[in-house]
């Protein structure tokens, strides 16, 4: 039997196309201590598009004092050379954010809430219920202007303030977001606590209630389980995953911890399983290098690190 035939479920059925939503310039950089010059961010994003990524979350139109790392959103979108066929998105927290996004000619926006009330209160200063009411007119206006709208649900597998979060909590919030009219919901393991068992239980509970073809999974690799979690997602037919180039990010609650699942590591695994992403690994690594030079730590991506080691070894040593 050929080796690939011995991997039954993951490769057996379902579409072979996987979409990677590159969230490094937003989720990654907002959790980095350093400030990256706007011009470097633009070069980084252009290189990500050159590598074949078709969905890139570039920045946030949030309060600059809240997230100073992304305070240059207008300047960045002004500088960015946009490639046809690539969707560049941004987070908007309120009507003011939506109007800033429109002014910057951004066609893809994301609204964001969470599965746990305390997290929402800390993040955007309103209750979970209040956030859903608050985002309703924003989604309506954005859809009226033919924008694509993503909804984020953070803390789906655990909350830094409340601890345990049940599947029901996240599913109910995702249902409410779809009812508002969002095109897609990203299910976030914000603090990187989910195990494959948790993801399996969550997807089993969700599969008859949510349109899984409109669900993206968003893992942080704080405890090294992100890739294993992706495999469970693939088995349930999920074909959209969020990740950050180089594993950019980190976690404000756990200094030194690794950030989001790294795009390089996701790509390596997906390609090894025979999935098509349209992304070129060498070009992706080159894009991550642009940002690596500006950071105060090594990029955590294992594949990225291995590529650097390989180039240092003498020829014939591999
Ligand atoms: N863009 C720029 N400035 C904004 C803004 C936006 N989208 N929304 C609010 N502000 C400004 C207001 O103009 C006001 O400014 P002023 O003090 O000079 O008058 C100030 O922020 C306070 O506004 P207020 O409406 O009282 O909001 P708030 O202080 O309760 O902040 C958020 C709420 C959500 C706007 C803010 O906390 C935020 O942007 N947080 C970032 C959340 C985030 O990105 N988290 C990470 C992603 S999960
Ligand atoms: Zn995240």
Question: Can you tell me about this structure?
Answer:
With 318 residues, this protein is of the alpha/beta class. The chain has a single domain (19-307), classed as TIM Barrel (Alpha-Beta Barrel), CATH 3.20.20. Helix content is 42%, strand content 14%. It has helices spanning 8-12, 24-28, 38-50, 73-79, 95-103, 117-124, 128-144, 167-180, 196-206, 226-235, 263-272, 281-292, 302-312, and strands at 19-22, 55-60, 87-91, 108-114, 148-154, 184-189, 215-219, 240-243. It has an eight-stranded parallel beta barrel with strand order 1-2-3-4-5-6-7-8, surrounded by seven helices. Helix 3 packs across helix 4, helix 7 packs parallel to helix 8 (167-180) and helix 9 runs parallel beside helix 10 (226-235). The longest helix is centred in the middle third of the chain and has 17 residues, at 128-144. The two termini are 28 Å apart. Mean pLDDT is 92; it is low at 1-8. Bound molecules: coenzyme A and zinc ion (ZN). The site of coenzyme A (COA) has 18 residues, from helix 5 and helix 6.
């Amino acid at each position: 039997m050929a080796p690939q035939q011995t991997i039954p479920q993951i490769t057996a059925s379902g579409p072979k196309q996987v979409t990677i939503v590159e969230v490094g310039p937003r989720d990654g950089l907002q959790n980095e201590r350093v400030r990256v010059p706007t011009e470097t961010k633009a070069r980084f994003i252009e290189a990500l598009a050159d590598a074949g990524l078709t969905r890139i979350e570039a920045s946030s139109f949030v309060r600059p004092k809240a997230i100073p790392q992304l305070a240059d959103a207008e300047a960045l979108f002004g500088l960015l050379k946009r490639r046809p066929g690539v969707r560049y998105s941004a987070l908007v927290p309120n009507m003011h954010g939506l109007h800033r996004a429109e002014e910057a000619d951004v066609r893809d926006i994301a609204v964001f809430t969470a599965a746990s009330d305390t997290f929402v209160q800390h993040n955007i200063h309103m209750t979970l219920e209040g956030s859903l009411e608050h985002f309703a007119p924003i989604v309506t206006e954005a859809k009226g202007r033919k924008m694509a709208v993503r909804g984020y649900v953070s803390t789906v597998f655990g909350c830094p303030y409340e601890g345990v979060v049940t599947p029901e909590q996240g599913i109910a919030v995702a249902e409410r977001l779809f009812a508002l009219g969002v095109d897609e919901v990203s299910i976030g393991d914000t603090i990187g606590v989910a195990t494959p068992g948790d993801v399996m239980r969550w997807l089993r509970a969700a599969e008859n209630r949510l349109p899984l073809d409109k669900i993206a999974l968003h893992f942080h690799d704080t405890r090294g389980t992100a890739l294993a979690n992706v495999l469970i997602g693939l088995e349930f037919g999920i074909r959209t995953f969020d990740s950050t180039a180089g594993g950019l990010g980190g976690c404000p609650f756990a200094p030194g911890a690794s950030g989001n699942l790294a795009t390089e590591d996701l790509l390596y695994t997906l390609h090894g399983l025979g999935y098509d992403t349209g992304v070129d690994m060498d070009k992706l690594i080159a894009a991550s290098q642009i940002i690596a030079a500006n950071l105060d730590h090594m990029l955590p991506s294992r594949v990225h690190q291995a590529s650097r080691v390989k180039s240092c070894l003498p020829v014939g040593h591999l």
